[in-house]
Amino acid sequence: MDSIISYSRSQAVEKLFEIKLTKHPKLKDKIATLEDNKSIKLVIEKPTGAYGSRGKRYYSDSQLNRLYNVILISGFYSKPAIIKDVANNSERRHEHVDDLRKLLAGRDRVGDILFNVEKLDNFLTSLKHWPSIDDARLPNPFKNLPHVIDNGSKKFPCVLEAYSQLDIESTKTERMLAAYLDCNIELAYQLSNDLNSQDDSAIKLKKWIENEYHEAQRFDELLEDIFN
Amino acid sequence: MKQFLVLLILFSSFSVYAKNSETENLVKGCNELVGIYENHKEKRLVSSLIVSSSDSLLAGYCMGVTKSLTTLYSSCRGRNWYQLAERIANEWEIEEKNASFDRYLRRMCNG
């Protein structure tokens, strides 16, 4: 009988990225959140029965590809819900990747985050077209994982959040789009109010963000009514 | 009109044997509903950006089913829709989809 090789979270991350998770508590917390929201799959054994006991949690060999890919995806997006959307929904993944490609076109860095441009292109192409992220590992587009870059802030760094840092060279339109892609619609809306560009595509984007903001407000009000 | 559709789907689901897709839609819907609820609690103005129209419909279907369960079955009384939705999302085995839909809905309230 074949025995299943199992890895703890730390062992798995060290095997995949040669990173000691104990030195990067933010990455550890991020992975734990992504396990809980089911972006990352792992084996969870039933609790033994003792009061308050949790079942043993571990990764099998076949689950390492997804762990690797989701960590790379989380280098772009900050919100667990979007990461889950990208990881689990192939149709939505298409849209997310197209938007990301438009935003990053021609860039080899965003703030402290440096890309390997060729691998970034392969990463986006593969992410868009692969039917599942369980079967193989995506090319790593980062020279250093954003999660382990010490940017001096306590915030978890990712590409879309990096756009909002004021010292980053980017246009208002780029910042607005980055905020929208990171589902920070309030910031996107604020930036759209400050945008005075006469460029046709910027005007269309501004109008679209305003509509999305108002729709998001209506949807939230409806949820508030339904849930309370 | 949307509410009518959700109710129609809901009541047509209470036939003794459900089609596989009905069970799958309920599980998917409850997953979506739990996700929407959690996201809504966590951060405002995010939900509409993440949830598609079909996901919203599925979530509404789950909410209709779970709210009805709390009034239809005595074993479900006292539970709230969220507890039931979470249980269906987490514990319903897709392998059980060929079994009686009604029986498994009742089981959601036991234990």
Q: Main beta sheet of chain B, described?
A: none
Percent helix of chain B, as a range, is: 55-70%
Mean pLDDT of chain A: 88
Spans of chain B with pLDDT under 50 lasting ≥5 residues? 1-9, 11-18
Shape of chain A: globular
In the predicted model, the low-confidence regions of chain A spanning at least 5 consecutive residues are none
Query: What is the count of DSSP helices of chain A, taking H or I runs of 4+ residues?
Result: 10
For the record, the count of structural domains of chain B works out to 1
How many β-strand runs of chain A? 5
| Rg for CA atoms of chain B | 14 Å
Question: First CA to last CA of chain A: what distance?
Answer: 53 Å
Q: How many H/I helices of chain B?
A: 6
Q: What is the subunit arrangement here? A: heterodimer
Order of helices and strands of chain B: HHHHHH
Structure class of chain B = mainly alpha
Average residue pLDDT of chain B: 76
Structure summary, number of beta strands of chain B = 0
Report the radius of gyration of chain A as a whole number of Å: 19 Å
Termini Cα gap of chain B: 36 Å
Largest interface: A-B, 23 and 18 residues
Structure description:
- The complex is a heterodimer of chains A (228) and B (111).
- Chain A is mainly alpha-helical.
- Chain A has 2 domains: 165 residues, no CATH class; 58 residues, no CATH class.
- Chain A has 10 helices and 5 strands.
- Chain A has a 3-stranded antiparallel sheet with strand order 1-3-2. In chain A, strands 4-5 form a two-stranded antiparallel sheet.
- In chain A, β4 and β5 form a beta hairpin.
- In chain A, α8 runs antiparallel to α9.
- The longest helix of chain A has 28 residues.
- Chain A is globular and about 60 Å long.
- The model of chain A has no long low-confidence stretch (mean pLDDT 88).
- The termini of chain B are far apart.
- Chain B has one domain.
- With 111 residues, chain B is mainly alpha-helical.
- Chain B is built from 6 helices and no strands.
- Classes of the chains: A mainly alpha (228), B mainly alpha (111).
- At the A-B interface, α4 and α10 of A face α2 and α3 of B.
